[in-house]
Amino acid sequence: MDDDNLAILSHLPIPLIKKIVSCIVVLKGNPAAQKDLIGGLCHHRFSRTIGEVAYINEAITARQAAIQLTPPGHPYLPIRLVNLTRSLHGRFEYTGDLKDVDTAILSMRKAVEATDPGDPSMAFRLSMLGNSLHLRFERKNNVSDLDNSISAYQQALRLLPPGDTQLQAVFLNDLGNSLYRRFQTTSRQDDIKDAISSYRRAVAIHTQLNIEASTFLNGLVSALHARFECSGDISDLKECIATLQRVISTTPSGDPRLATWYGNLGNVLQTRSVVKNSIDDINQAVRAMQKAIDFTPNDHAGVSVLLHNLSNALGVRFERTGDVQDLTQSIAAKRKAIARTPPGHSIFPSLLYNLGISLHQHHNVTGLKDSIDEAIHLQMRAIGMSPIGHVEIASRYRGLGISYLSRFGRTRQSSDLKEAISAHEKALALTPAGHPRLFAVWSALGNSYRERFHREGNLKDIELAISLQRKAVESTPIGHKDFPDTLCGLGESIWSRFQHKGAMEDIQESIRLLVKGTGLAMEGHVDLPRYLTVLGVAYHARYQRVEDLADVEEAISVFQRAVKVTRKDSADLPKRYDNLGIAFQNRFRRSREISDVEEAIAAQKKAIDLIPTGEESQLPNPFSNLGNSYHSRYEVSHTLEDLERSIAFKEKAISLTPDGHRSMPKLLNNLGNSLLLRFEDAGNFDDIDKAISLKERARGRLPPGHADTVFYVFNLGSAWQVRFQRTDNIADIDKAIATIQEAITLCPEVHASLPYLNHKLGQAFNSRFKHTEDEGDLKQAIASHRLAAISPYGSPLTRFHAAEAWAILSHSIDPAKSLEAFDTAILLLSLVAGLEQTVQRRHNQLVKTGVSDFSLLAAAASLSLGKSDKALEWLERGRCLVWNQINSLRSPLDDLRKHDEGSQEGATRVKGVGDGRVAGYG
């Protein structure tokens, strides 16, 4: 029967086809042949009009009947088994029912067994068996199917009759496909090398025969692309692009294959755009993909895939340029692709999942809850529609976990965090050891455990997060596009552990990892603003530990960059302005320059202005931190309006915050600080009582082992000390001393604040001594001041004041022991002035410390002990100090640091440490 008659008959209804076939005279009495013809006609109809499942069902039923009617050993049996396999493949491609592939494999194995080894058809039937095994691998992800597929293709090539070079090229291409897929699964480098070799041989055969070779270039381009992603050798991408451009230039304009070539060219250009950070490449990629769509008939089944690829390219361009129009168009293209694809199609779950990824991005940019809700819904649908064992199922669970974690970041609902961890754990369970993307699964699961640690405070979670993310960093290829993410993820988790345990080695490693990760991330990286924020927070925290001015300068610089690279419509921008304001506020505490506190107020006002109306309760910290900045300005301006604003903003922050929120201790403590300051100036006992109550509540709400406990405890002790100064109630100073002593026991041995704590404890003991005249208190005061003065860490100004108190108190009971204290204080004076940045500030610092008066006091003490040489030395050093400072302005800061490591100036009021901690990062 010729093709024209076949086409006419195949368009008839099934009952009519059966009736006509039964009337064909030559088939009378041969039911197997009748079933064969019915199967062929119905298969032909289905292949021309995809979607009419009844025809492919009838084709399979008829062909199975034909096989049952064919006796073993019959020469037509292998042929009918091959025909059944073709129909089973056709139905599988439409329905995705794995049973069809299983049946196809059984049929082809029977066909091979029924074929004589010397039969010229054996090679073709082995190739068909290889095709079926490859199809099943794509669904079940069982590498043994690929192994058997490759073996079948290799055997087919060996058995192929000499001279059949065209079929050899086809088999080589099929072998390349299976080798390529095995490489994707196992990362075996020999496989990708052999796949490229097979593809190149197939292309060479067609070129030699003067047959157009573009049919086999898809596999070659894909394999070169994959090898690039593994090796990073950009020459593979260059060969891909050159090959595709050559094919396009030699293909007639009306050729339907142009759509495929342009589509592939767009994909490769998209990859190179990411590697080279090239806007020109991604623009070319978008144009190529649009041409692929233009060259494809509107009703073609492949349009949905092309729309999907275009949407991916638009998504990449959005990440590069930040143009929301690209993201909007990307989402629209994905929606069109889904609308054109039958729900039963095998690619439908992929389209749903990828739309979910884009909506997740949209949520990250806009903060719209509807976007992340729809993203999660689509990703769950995609997973629900994915067959068990699907090659992408682990990746889809990982993406779902990331979306849940993003929503948790907005809602703080524990159910979202629970679902995120569950999804990531499933992704890990489904990812085989040695998988090339296992590092990404470890990293994402680590991020989820870190968030649970933040919420529940269980150290096991953060240790597990760090362990997983260390493995992720160790297994991520250097130069891989995801390497910055794995580095920053580990850096962020180690930073979180530092917040809890306070170990200096953690903050040092965290900064090192974050500096490296942010340095490797491209400027348009979607998470770069957040990584920079974490880095700024870490610098800020290290500054509070060692008071190296360079750290607060770095924090300001990094926060400014984070603000700059954050999209203007990002929901995280308020938090980033807030963090910048906190850094300026802390530099003000060091510099006392009014310009710094003005910068802080401006940044925090901007943060509050950017919070959408009605969402203030989601971001209470900027209100409290603006209150801190007004508090700081009041310390300089003494304008009551600043203090009242400070209290008002802090009260508003507390009113916006749920009772169990993790920020509540800080907010309560901050309000207590401002009320304490108002009490010191106005003397209203309601303020001091409320301040103490707030600080006790703040301390009581800290989780066990919190790294900041020392500051909250000290602040409470300071409040009791201030109260004693007004009440003379011995119970108040007793509580102050006991509480400050507790803070000192909680403080790490290497901490810039330890001298300040000891100095304040000395003042508290001295206050009680003046009240009780108990010499034991005086000796305790001297001992505490001495510890503060001789510390190698902390502010030289604090240590000078401690040495001054040590000297004066020692002289009152044992003048001989005061000489060491006076000598220490004189030495510290040069450091106090030497680290200031301007002539005026150096001079002012010396005036404020009373250098002349102190030198006279030291000399008098020395003379009273008959130490005239020491008295003259101290007088001369005091007289020359200002002059020497003015004449040594050009001395580098490093020379001063060499004199005393860790002695940078910075008189930080520890009672304000709670004020100055960066509230949070986004």
From TrEMBL:
Q: Which InterPro entries match?
A: TPR-like_helical_dom_sf
Q: Where is the composition biased (Gly residues)?
A: 913-922
What name does this protein carry? TPR-like protein
Region Disordered, residue ranges: 894-922
Extract the SUPFAM superfamilies matched here. Answer: TPR-like
- Give the stretches traversing the membrane: none
